[in-house]
Write a structure and sequence with these properties.
GO terms for molecular function: metal ion binding. It holds the Pfam family Cupin_2. β5 and β6 form a beta hairpin. This protein is mainly beta. It is 3% helix and 41% strand. The strands form three sheets. A five-stranded antiparallel beta sheet has the order 1-2-9-4-7. The chain has a three-stranded antiparallel beta sheet with strand order 6-5-8, with no helix packed on it. Strands 3-10 form a two-stranded antiparallel sheet. It contains one helix and ten strands. The chain has a single domain, classed as Jelly Rolls.
Length: 126
Amino acid sequence: MDYSVVDPDELEPIEDRDCDLRLMSEPAGLENVAINRFRAEPGEQLPLVYHYHEQQEEAFIVQSGTLHVETPDGEYEVPAGSVFAVRPEAPQRAYNPENAETAVEVFAIGAPPVSGDAVKYEPDAE
């Protein structure tokens, strides 16, 4: 398969997650990059806890709403149409605050597409 068109709304959401998560890489036939679509209602967190990746770079492309990202450097507000990039070993926690007026929809792209390299970050442990 050289080309693919994937509608994330046609994919089954991943169960037991705080927000709606659709895994897009496999349906698109991609092996070298992870692509996920998140939709978080007010008060929901994108699936992982405060964490960092040992190897993976990530880019969060905000399609609608405003993504909030907690980092050791402070809090970022990422509006629709913007990209929030994270280098390996940089702790972050992405969420939609409880007082948000709308859901936030984000496409997350990560490479390499490693599984199990997410490390829980505890800011008080430093």
